[in-house]
Write a structure and sequence with these properties.
With about 350 residues, this protein is an alpha+beta fold. Helices cover about 35% and strands about 25% of the residues. It has 12 helices and 12 strands. Helix 3 packs parallel to helix 4, helix 5 packs across helix 6 and helix 5 crosses helix 9.
């Protein structure tokens, strides 16, 4: 292979890599539904009142996905199960069981592993999901955690990336950018600790409690499905916000061959997140649009269903509208200016 033929994952991006790899899908089976969902699969064994089996998995590497310098071990277990469970809630399902596989270096003691499992246990109780230890093997340097979650979704309640149409309203739960703000604070404090030396990392984070909590202890939106049922609405598409608002919106747009307009001033961002961005002298919109790990839910509704849901559940915001494909993905700044995301990406912004 010549040098110019060698491409790194960074060269093509993780989503393009996924598009290339998903064609190597093995045998075709009737039990597997070819619906578009993110980081999960939908299976149909025997049809019954319990619905379809769903599963999601994630693999997390120390130094890449988490940093043990500032991540308490019990928080780590909680966060990783929340991340995997979030993908099941995104299809309007519910997790039932989780299997944890580990590659463990010598620096991790039995007591430390128990702390990690304490976090898995606490999250499992929140999501009514059993937790089972799987394979555990040795690792030379880094801790590696694999989480595989299985659950159930009723066929008539299932939501995927596909299904929205022009005019549908784009909605998001909670607020965005908090997890990135928390990460920026933790990285700043870690750098200060490294510069001054010392054995213990114990920064005073009281004034950053909200955003640090969003980073270290996120909560999957396990409450949302019940409100859909109570309001008698069914979103036309849905995805969890794990990799930033723009990335998730692109997934929905591409799955439906449509465009969208997002009203930037409407995107919900907490005061605490704005304060961190101001301290860092950074653009808070970047936190919300590209930060990721918020694990809120991005979904689309028919216009007539927005008020119906609002009557039962008020922790969501309408932030835009689905448009025809030729519209692309536009950010409306509210100042008579629109930003074309495709052009922004090509310019390396």
């Amino acid at each position: 292979m010549q040098e110019q033929d060698f491409q790194t994952i960074h060269d093509i991006g993780i989503r393009s890599l996924y598009d290339r790899l998903k064609k190597y899908s093995g045998a075709s089976r009737d039990e597997i539904i070819p619906a578009k969902v993110k980081n999960s699969s939908i299976k149909a064994p025997n049809k019954n009142e319990n619905g379809r089996l769903i599963s999601a998995s994630g693999i997390y590497l120390e130094g890449v996905h988490f940093d043990l310098v500032y991540t308490p071990l019990k928080h780590l277990g909680h966060k990783l199960l929340s991340a995997a469970a979030s993908h099941l809630y995104a299809v309007n399902g519910r997790p039932v069981s989780a299997r944890i596989d580990l590659a463990v270096p010598n620096k991790i003691s039995v007591s430390m592993l128990e702390q990690i499992y304490h976090g898995f246990d606490q999250a499992g109780k929140i999501y009514n999901c059993s937790v089972q230890p799987g394979d555990t093997t040795a690792s030379r340097q880094m801790l590696v955690v694999s989480v595989h979650v299985e659950g159930i979704v009723r066929e008539e309640e299932m939501i995927t990336l596909e299904g929205c149409s022009t005019g549908d309203q784009i909605c998001v739960t909670g607020d965005l950018g908090g997890a990135m703000a928390g990460l920026r604070v933790l990285l700043r404090e870690k750098q200060a600790w490294q510069e001054r030396g010392g054995d213990h990392f114990q920064p005073d984070l009281e004034e950053y409690e909200y955003v640090v909590g969003r980073q270290l202890m996120p909560l999957a939106r396990h409450d949302l499905g019940a409100y859909y049922e109570k309001a008698e609405v069914h979103p036309t598409s849905q995805v969890d916000v794990s990799q930033g608002l723009i990335n998730e919106m692109q997934l929905i747009a591409e799955a439906n061959n449509l465009g969208c307009e997002i009203f930037t001033p409407a995107v919900p961002i907490s005061l605490e997140t704005r304060q961190v961005a101001d301290e860092m002298q950074e653009d808070v919109d970047r936190y919300a649009f590209y930060g990721g790990e918020d694990y809120e839910m991005l979904f689309t509704l028919k216009k007539e269903d927005v008020e119906k849901l609002k009557a039962e559940f008020d922790d969501f915001t309408v932030i835009g509208e689905i448009k025809p494909a030729e519209y692309g993905i536009q950010l409306n700044t509210g100042e008579g200016k629109s930003i074309d995301i495709a052009k922004e990406k090509n310019q390396g912004l």
